[in-house]
Structure formats: C-alpha cells, structure tokens
Task: structure prediction
Amino acid sequence: MKVLKFEGEILPGEHWGIIGKNGSGKSALAAQLANEERAQLVSFEVEDALLEREIREDDTDFLDRIDPGRSVTEMLREVVGTGNQEEIERMLRQLGLDSLRDRGFRLLSTGEKRRVMIARALIQKPSRLVLDEPFDGLDQEFRSCFGQMLKELQAEVCLIIVANRLSDLDGLITHLVYLDSGACLLAGARELVEKNEVFQQLMAVKVSSVPVGEIDQKTQFDEPLVIMKKLTVVHGGRAIIDGLDWQIEPGQNWKITGPNGCGKSTLVNLITGDHPQCYSNDVTVMGMRRGSGESIWDVKRHVGIVSPALHQQYRVNINALSVVLSGFHDSIGLYQAATTSEQEAAQEWLRVMGMDAFAGRAFRSLSYGQQRLLLVARALVKGPPLLVLDEPCQGLDPINRALVLTVIDELVARGQSQLIYITHEPEDRLKCVTHSLSHDGKVWRF
Result:
C-alpha cells in the first residue's frame, strides 16, 4: 500500500495524530515513521511478534513444570541490558508493573501486556515515540496516568499517535492527518483539520439499523446459561478470583468491568473451557457441569466468542471468508468443507460487516481493525445462544465501532443471543445490557 511520506515534514515541537478508517494505512504509516534512529514503536503487530516468540520458545512440554517464558523484568532488561537495573526498577513502578515483575509475558492480561510494551519503548528514551492505538486494552485509571506521562514527555519527545478515538488525542497532539486508502486526505494543525467540513462529514457516524436477514432460532435454554459456585482461581500463589458466586439467567445480558489483571478474561476462559481451573471449580455452562464427561466442543457450539486472546491466537493465513466459516466449527482455521447454507450465511455476514470485497484476501494481510471485524462475524455466524464479547471493538474506527454495537444490540433485542460483554470503554455502550458485574480493585460487585 502506498503511504504518505512524512520525512522532513514533522517540525520540532509538533506532535501528530493519525486517524482514518480501518484499512486506510494508519499502521503502515506509523511503522514508517518509527523507522529512524532513536524512534520506538508500540503496536499490536510488535506485541504479537514478541508473543509469537515466547510461544515458539515455550519449553513446557520438556519440563516437569509450566515454562512461564521471559518475565516482565527480563523483557525490560532485554532492551537496556543488565547494567540498568535502577532504571528498570523505576519503569516497573511508573507503569504499575512492580507486582508483575516475575510474571511471564505471555501469561499477562491484555492490558498488562500493553503496559510492558509501553515500558519497553519508554525505557529506551526515544526522541520519537510512535504509539499505534496505545490506549486500547488499558483500564481507565491507568489511561489517565499514562496520558499524564505523555504530556510530561512532550517537551523532549516527538509523539506520533494512531487513534480510532479522537478523545484519546486530547492534550497530546498539535497536528492531525487523516488517511484514506493510503493517501493523505487532510493534514495540518488539529483545530483547523477538525473545523474542516470534509473532516466533519468523514467522522459522522450514521448507523441506525443493520439488516441481518432472517433469524434462525437456535436451542433455547430455560435454565441458567452459566452457574459458578464459590469460584476460586489461583495463579502464581495469588487468588485472581476468590469465592465468586455468579449465574446468568435466561434473558439476562451482562457487562463486566474492572481494572487490568482483575480476572475479567479469566471468567471468559472458565466459561469456554480454555482455562484449566474450570475443572477444579463448580462451573456449569449450558446445563453441562465442567468435568462431567463433556467435551470442550459440547459447550463451544453454543457460544460465540471474540477476545484479544483469540485474535492473537488466530495466526493461520486463510482468506476472510474461511475465517467467518470457521465460526461454525469453533476452530482456528477451516478444516472441513462448508455446506451451501454455511457459505451463504458467511457471505451475508461479510456483507453486514462491510468486508464482502475482501472475501478472498488473506487474513494476515488485512489491518488489525479489519481482522477484528472478521472475528466478530465469525462469532455471530452460527447464531449462538450465548455471545461472549471481550473488547470486541478494539481497533475499530468510529463507524465500524458503531456498526458492531448496533448489530449486537439488534441481535440481542431479537432474542437470538444472550450476552457477556467486557469493555474498558465507557462510550461503547450497549442498550441491551441488563446486569453488571464489576471489580473495584479488591472485590467483585453486582
């Protein structure tokens, strides 16, 4: 993709925000702008590369214990050397990572991984800091602290920030560029760009209703969809969840909130069977008690899931249509021939998500936001009784974010699915939510 050349155009004292639709070339431009001496890039792509390395070097199968991989401290030491322990300690404290110093990188939550990536960039004292969606996955408390850190860096560091939310750029940038199809459509001082009539039209969100065809009603449950009794999950000697009683009754739609690392995604993995401690706890999903002889697929066929972890695990490079089709089989990749009805349903969901023109494109060749749209379609394609959506709008531009939220609200309102919804974004509201479960940093509250 041909992208605007920025070399020589960023003047001292300028801080730039990069915005545009998903697939417009924002991340490509960010990577280009980070390709200079003393520049550092924080992005999903860089994070994924490090995670793939950790998974590739995992020696658990050859040890009599779980190999945690490189610890948080080692991830920092890797970029500054062993003679900078004092600076490492300062960065651990500043980024709220002190209690996680010995935790393996791949065992961290989404927000905790993002903090490590930020720490790795900052500890190298860059003259240019390029941040691609740096606030995604961070809880509200740390967002505020991180935003203040960036403001304090402005006098000595040039900030380049890719954002899908203009609010993430408040107080941090002086200039703005809007990309469209890899080209610069608008660029200049932020206040002038935002006053531009073309810009205001581009940023207008107009999604009121989304036709998704006829509903094919699936199995309806008269009993609670999820029951957890005295749920306790221990990791590294620390209780992530301690004695939680929770159940989801028919007709209930739950929103889960809380700080990074409090156990939100752990709850999701206990429901889907992707956490080993689901079998040592009293957990019943879709009427099936975990550990009673059911297979993981017996439960997953009733559940549609989107999560940052699934996005990171989806490394196969099949085409976009096959990604959506894989939702019928709850697989990463497609290993069965699709029926005619499955093909038709998958193509319809590509159309709904505005991705039908990309049906034949390789998954890994698409932008992060476009990949996320495909994974949302993958979760919805089989019309599951239960949708488990963990940060489903991560990486989406304003229009696609509104599209996804509208589709979810519409499907739940029709009674096709019930919902478990995890988000750090107050503005990503769903009208269909009826109940909430939140963590205040100490305990879970209903």
